[in-house]
Amino acid sequence: MNMKIWILASIVILAIVFVLLAKQGRIRNKPNYYSLFIVGIMWATVGIPIGNEALTVSGIILTLIGLLNRSKWKENRSPWSDLSEEEKKDKIIIIVIVSFLLIAGIVIYLFQNSL
């Protein structure tokens, strides 16, 4: 299969998970601008060497959003010990899903390039 189909499928799955969590009322936090800044830096630095313009531009945009809201960086930062059990469970579920999608994407990429 085409790699674009797998990427699109991953985005759709993440969107569905996000919508389900939002409908259940589990997503009630404000954006974490510090995390947006960090993710933007990572995406931009990965996108430049591999020549992926979409990743680079997305990274630059996220970095700028994070920088423009630098005064709000400490609003949503809390250590794991301060989270409720429900918040910990939600974060673990998100980490597991994202990790699975990342590993599946790497396996599919390696499989397609080995043929």
Question: What would you note in describing this structure?
Answer:
The protein has 2 domains: 1-28 and 84-115; 30-75. It is 74% helix and 0% strand. It is built from 4 helices and no strands. Helix 1 packs antiparallel against helix 4 (85-114) and helix 2 (33-50) runs antiparallel to helix 3. The mean pLDDT is 84.
Overall number of strands: 0
SSE pattern: HHHH
C-alpha Rg, in Å?
Answer: 16 Å
Distance between the termini: 12 Å
Strand content range: under 5%
What structural class should be given to the helix and strand makeup?
mainly alpha
The domain count comes to: 2
Report the uncertain regions.
Answer: none
Fraction of helical residues: over 70%
The largest sheet, given as strand count, sense and whether it forms a barrel, is: none
Output mean pLDDT.
Answer: 84
Shape: globular
Q: Can you count the helices?
A: 4
Gist?
This protein is mainly alpha-helical. Helix content is 74%, strand content 0%. It has helices spanning 3-23, 33-50, 53-68, 85-114.
SSE blueprint:
Blueprint lengths: L2 H21 L9 H18 L2 H16 L16 H30 L1
Features:
115 residues; mainly alpha; 2 domains; 4 helices; globular
